[in-house]
Amino acid sequence: MLSMSFLVTFIWYCRRLYGFLAQLLKRWSNYVQRKLIRNLSVLTEVDLLGYSVREWKGETQQAKHMREAYEELFWSCHIKYLRQVRRDNYCVLRAVLFQIFSQGIPFPSWMRERDILKLPEKLLYSQGCNWIQQYSFGPERYTGPSAFGKLRKCMETLKTNWIEIIATKDHEERGNICNTLFSDENKEHKMYEAIKFIMLYEVVEAYEKIKNREEPIHSLFSLLFARDSSSDPLSFMMNHLNSIGDSLCLDQVELCLLGYLLEVKIRVHRLHRFNTEEFQVNYPDEYRREWNEISLLTEDDRYYHIPVFRT
Q1: In degrees rounded to 5, what are phi and psi of residue 309?
Q2: Choice between 23 and 40, residue whose per-residue pLDDT is larger
């Protein structure tokens, strides 16, 4: 009788403990989920027209113009939703890289032939670009001799996560990986700095080809070097690249460069240019047929969101 009473008491305590642990696990899961959502730099889908009505209230000419532009996207371009992207000076890099990862787009062809981890070493030692010590990592400016090691870590972060994405064939699982990755600010910033450095590497390569009169280069480099502020790789880095992530976003020439080096056609819907020939533009405007396409949406050429298509 005593043993039976002990058994009943033991079972009762086990049930209480199980209930307590289950409640604790549920609270922890909710906390993690809330924290993940709060830190997400690319939010979940929202209805496009609902968003436009909330963002552009009133009867001013600009508000009407923007609502009409959103309606055009909804009815003519089959864009039914959008994903808001955090508004900072990494915004366009984030919007582009998120789509590359969420779609499982592979490395560009040139990147499969070379180890991107060796690019900082190649520029520093093989091509004598010791001025890369003046490279700035977003708001962290002029890191000096430590720039080389920091760049290598950035390249490792980009390569490691991109390899994981390519290996993930299930769309839902890939989406979960993206949500986790794009809620980790430290990893995000390293990947964006890696992309910035690859842009610099491509500019140096093009500049050397021009100097040595080698094979023809893409027309975008002629536009880039024609600017007084980026007439050579050093001035491009100092006057443009170093400020991206800190005080500047990418301009249209740099957006062309981004699409070119990643081998994606970046189609941008520019709502403030509605009813003009510049409403929908491609970066770069010269691209190969086999390149993947990603789309962006902007109201001001500074901050970008991700349009979601439904037919």
Answers
A1: -90, 140
A2: 40
Distance CA 199, CA 108 (A): 13
Q: Is 216 helix (H, G, I), strand (E, B) or coil?
A: coil
| Residue where the block lists tokens 């990418």 | 250
Provide the residue type at 249 as one letter: C
Quote the CA–CA distance of 2 and 206 in Å, as a whole number.
88
- Cα angle at 89 between 268 and 257, to 5 degrees? 50
Cα(157)–Cα(116) distance, integer angstroms: 11
102-137 pLDDT, tens digit per residue, is 999 999 999 998 899 999 988 888 777 889 999 999
Residue type, position 80, single letter:
K
Between CA 191 and CA 195 the distance in angstroms is 6
User: What's the full length of the chain, in residues?
Assistant: 311
**Is 272:68 a contact under the CB 8 Å cutoff?**
no
| pLDDT tens digits along 198-215 | 999 999 999 999 988 877
Token digits of residue 110: 């040139």
| Residue in the block written with tokens 């993690």 | 32
Closest CA to 183 of 45, 282, 42: 42
The residue type of 54 is R
Element (H, E) at 268: strand 264-270
Give this prediction's pTM.
0.86
* Residue 117, Cβ density class (10 Å: 0-12 exposed, 13-18 middle, ≥19 buried): middle
Contacts of 296 (CB under 8 A, 6+ apart): 92, 95, 96, 266, 267, 268, 269, 304, 305, 306, 307
Residue with the two structure tokens 């986790």? 180
Residue 85: in which H helix or E strand, if any? Answer: strand 79-85
Amino acid at 292: N
Question: What is the rounded distance in angstroms from the CA atom of residue 173 to the CA atom of residue 241?
Answer: 34
Query: How far is residue 183 from each of residues 41, 42, 53, 80, 281, measured CA to CA in Å?
Result: 6, 8, 28, 25, 30
